[in-house]
Amino acid sequence: xxxxxxxxxxxxxxxxxxxxxxxxxxxxxxxxxxxxxxxxxxxxxxxxxxxxxxxxxxxxxxxxxxxxxxxxxxxxxxxxxxxxxxxxxxxxxxxxxxxxxxxxxxxxxxxxxxxxxxxxxxxxxxxxxxxxxxxxxxxxxxxxxxxxxxxxxxxxxxxxxxxxxxxxxxxxxxxxxxxxxxxxxxxxxxxxxxxxxxxxxxxxxxxxxxxxxxxxxxxxxxxxxxxxxxxxxxxxxxxxxxxxxxxxxxxxxxxxxxxxxxxxxxxxxxxxxxxxxxxxxxxxxxxxxxxxxxxxxxxxxxxxxxxxxxxxxxxxxxxxxxxxxxxxxxxxxxxxxxxxxxxxxxxxxxxxxxxxxxxxxxxxxxxxxxxxxxxxxxxxxxxxxxxxxxxxxxxxxxxxxxxxxxxxxxxxxxxxxxxxxxxxxxxxxxxxxxxxxxxxxxxxxxxxxxxxxxxxxxxxxxxxxxxxxxxxxxxxxxxxxxxxxxxxxxxxxxxxxxxxxxxxxxxxxxxxxxxxxxxxxxxxxxxxxxxxxxxxxxxxxxxxxxxxxxxxxxxxxxxxxxxxxxxxxxxxxxxxxxxxxxxxxxxxxxxxxxxxxxxxxxxxxxxxxxxxxxxxxxxxxxxxxxxxxxxxxxxxxxxxxxxxxxxxxxxxxxxxxxxxxxxxxxxxxxxxxxxxxxxxxxxxxxxxxxxxxxxxxxxxxxxxxxxxxxxxxxxxxxxxxxx
Length: 723
Prior knowledge:
Alkaline Phosphatase, subunit A, 5-stranded antiparallel sheet, 723 residues, 3 domains, Jelly Rolls, alpha+beta
């Protein structure tokens, strides 16, 4: 069952209204019901009963005369009263291959014991490619588009093919070795499923040639690009979403009065207007593109996807739009003053109960396995503010989004930084070893051989490298990604001043086992770090660990020079990526540089607004929606010379309000959190690290990887809902 149109609307980048649906969602694991292979070279043979040791595999191979295809199907029942939101396929690879397998639809109804090449259903609509496969590990494929919206009893069938001429294998349901079973994770929730039509409330034209004349009673909403005689059409909606529901999708219905290949473009209007007084000279400005008609056909409704403009909206609202064209002859669609039946312009939107429309974290259910592990952990590193500065009294107006997360997901009590400056905290977190030789203090009892507050370079930073084993090295480069916002091409070891990138906030650069050793042997290719993409849906979810270092503005560090990567003045209120509105006490509209105190809008307000869009974008990824990802917001230190409580919070489908409260007053450290990340990813503990490092002798020994049972570990295991 395919719902591609619905998916294209609901899973568009701006359609983040779906995200809160993980609140009160149910995550179900469903094993393959049956599977079989068909072989072109043996067209009448059935291989459904031959999937037994030593080769219980679903196979795929490309060949002109000896192709092999693997079929598998799922049959299950969605929890009563719920609707499927997302589905992820998990297949266990038995080959390492860069090509991977293609997953396509097939018809249901085949029987594993009778299926042959000659009676197979055939390959239907292509759904996704697996990407590179790694022998001995699971890979995932997003199958949401084939399942979304289904309720009750579900039966879906798929076929596995490949362009590889080498036979590729994934474990079948008959593979009896534990931990190889093919399965899907299904996320479902209660949907009310209302569809509402809301007519245009007012419309008018604005004409450049007569800039002070009102055209509020015409029967056409017009648009023309004629030189010196441009015409723009304005229209607005006053609508109400059903009580307790949130808009999921929206479509404009505009009745065309022209046949034209050019069509019109619809923009957000930057303000409301009065139909009786609108003119060219007082018309609201033109904002972002919200949709295009494509080719228009006279006498029919044009349907334009407006999901980006409406998704996430609740309650009563007003939305204004302006239509423009590149056609110089003029194009028209019917206005509210056209009394001919069946021409009224309107928007149709779908809405549903999202289990708490203002929620960030889920309130029930968990995507964790019985052992408590996850597929993916994301760490977002923030900078230089104590917990009191982020969540203390009077900060509601500076960090409203973070306050929202703390309320909905909890926040860790008594979490403290290890030291100052930033770098030793990053090393602590990922190596389970405190590098006191990097501190701004004398606890090592040695003289520093280099300034570890500076960024790495190729000549004088060897003393700041750590020879310690670390989680990145433990996972291997194939299983983690380190992102740096503002990273310049090939310049991971240099400050990118204009973009705010700082190497000292990239811990991977400081572990000698990752960068090829010290001195001249250091890796200078920068392959260890990736520039943070603007489209966060492209983040590689197959990696177990993702580390994100925002730029020096967005991480709240504050830049140190006038106009150095500075954002424009902040807007308030904003609509976050979760569809909620956030208001800020200070917006610094007079400019971001005050001449004395760094860049104001590169402080906590800018960081909060950044997170208000970053976090929901990360939540949109399929492993999060399947309950298999945890997002950790982590502050490195308070920005002073002290060790003080800092903010650490977990955002996940299984987090609950109040999580993190009552942590041991003895404090929780970066060492505790690093150890917990290992547990979440199913990794063994790091071996004891050496107590010496480049340029350091006589450093004090410190505890590596505190064991389970310590006060900090007990608290964090509870916070992460580990068994």
